[in-house]
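User: Structure with shikimate-3-phosphate, tokens only please.
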Amino acid sequence: MKRNTNIVLIGFMGAGKTEVGKILAKHKGFNFIDLDSLIEEEEGKSITEIFKKKGEGYFRNLETEILKKIDKNKSDIYKIKEVEKSSEINNPESKNWVISAGGGMPAFNGNIKLLKKIGTAVYLKAGAKTIYDRIKSEVHRPVLGGSGFTEADVTEKLKEREKFYEQADIIIYTEGLTAAAAAEEIGIFLH
Ligand code: S3P
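Assistant:
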């Protein structure tokens, strides 16, 4: 049994965690938070800047620290500083959250265990081709070298990470689904 009803969305970049998460949160009357935005607020820098100035190792530590903080506060996310600025409060009376995790978060420092502790982890799964098509025009993807990455780069990284994503409590295959349909499917599992 989970100690709370939070829903944690995990998956590769471009899996739709933020878009699906916002719809799902509204639909369930939960609040929404994107952990990347929370880290950006706490550091006063964008993720790209953090990668550039401090390196990936530093960013991965920040990711683990934020998870530990949420866990220490028994998943009461209101207790986290900067939360007001990086969240969407749909329901101020609700203690329940939809949490969008960064794409790499589950794959480092044993974070997947903490992610599953702070809520029900849902993997938004899609194939490398679909993911590549969704993110290929983006230039702010530091783990893929910024811009100019290929489908093969996505395939390789996805392969590295899949074993962590697959440890989720629930897996939703999102190929061919709109964000609203994916949110609805999660809602059906977790009603
Ligand atoms: C990352 C994904 C990003 C962000 C950072 C690193 C990754 O999050 O945390 O750029 O390693 O895959 P999104 O998946 O929310 O874009």
